[in-house]
Amino acid sequence: MRHFDYARPSQTDQAVATHADRPSAYLGGGTNLLDMMKIDIMRPEQVVDINGLGLDQIERLSDGRLRIGARVSNTALAYDDRVQQDYKVLSEALLSGASRQLRNKATTAGNVMQRVRCPYFRDGYSPCNKREPGSGCAAIGGHNRSVHAVLGTSEHCIATHPSDMCVAMAAIGATVTVEGPGGPREIDFLEFHLLPGDTPHEEHALKEDELITHVTLDAPISGNRSGYLKLRDRSSYQFALASSAVIVATDGGTVRDARIALGGVGTKPWRAKEAERALIGQNVSESAFAKAAEIIFRDAQPYEHNAFKIPLGQQAVIRNLSTLTA
């Protein structure tokens, strides 16, 4: 591990100013950052510890939204009564990820900022445009089965976004509040994570000198049922091959509202708005669910080892919808 300086500010504006002083990284739970530093992928000259800033509260706003502090742990968020009652899909997604020990340390903002698990990105020497722009993408011609995408890919990167929590938040709808030298601003959650395109090293809409302070979930859909279905090689501590976060509300056997997001198949948490629109007003049926699932993968780009993710991803959506409307 390389040498680095450590700072522990007590105020948000102080943390932002300290971070801007030189190449730095914010430290919350550290479950991803410290891994990246140990394998020499991230090399901050300074680590700014934000654990003294508060930012660990969950509060209901007057408009029905739920405001989550950046430092709220995955465990605290998953077991919060308001989350379990109104956002069951989020609780299930959080509890499907990592181990209990990691969930106790991992934070909301850290999960949002989680780096990809592509082995070519993490090995430190293979060509990787995300790690070293312009060097190439070893995954496209190499082994690309489990943590590589079929949606949102480009000729420069096909790594999947690894978070379960973010898939649920994409389905719910959320706003990311950030603080920078110019003051606070808000970013729509669906616009926070970026497609790789020609610049896969640019992973999010957060500016270099900004700090995530909160994530605010949209107010819940009335009368909804929701769930997270994660399909993986083994039943614990494994990243998704395909997952679906589904929120659905029905009236008399007809779909009134639907939200669908997928993980394990996209280069970012994948919201399927066209499929949602196709479902609304349809009778609850497997044929309607299958049509929606087909729409999601209509423009999918499979690679040598991950073509199975297309039917698997479709099944993740159909099964989830069928269970929630049974």
From TrEMBL:
Presence of the UniProt keyword Oxidoreductase in the record: yes
Limits of the FAD-binding PCMH-type domain: 1-222
PROSITE patterns: FAD_PCMH
InterPro entries documented for this protein: CO_DH_flav_C, CO_DH_flav_C_dom_sf, Diverse_Substr_Oxidored, FAD-bd_PCMH, FAD-bd_PCMH-like_sf, FAD-bd_PCMH_sub1, FAD-bd_PCMH_sub2, Mopterin_DH_FAD-bd
SMART domains: CO_deh_flav_C
Keyword Oxidoreductase carried by entry: yes
Keywords annotated in UniProt: FAD, Flavoprotein, Oxidoreductase
GO molecular function: FAD binding; oxidoreductase activity
Pfam families reported for this sequence: CO_deh_flav_C (PF03450), FAD_binding_5 (PF00941)
Name the UniProt record assigns to this protein: Xanthine dehydrogenase family protein subunit M
Highest classification ranks of the organism: Bacteria, Pseudomonadati, Pseudomonadota, Gammaproteobacteria, Pseudomonadales
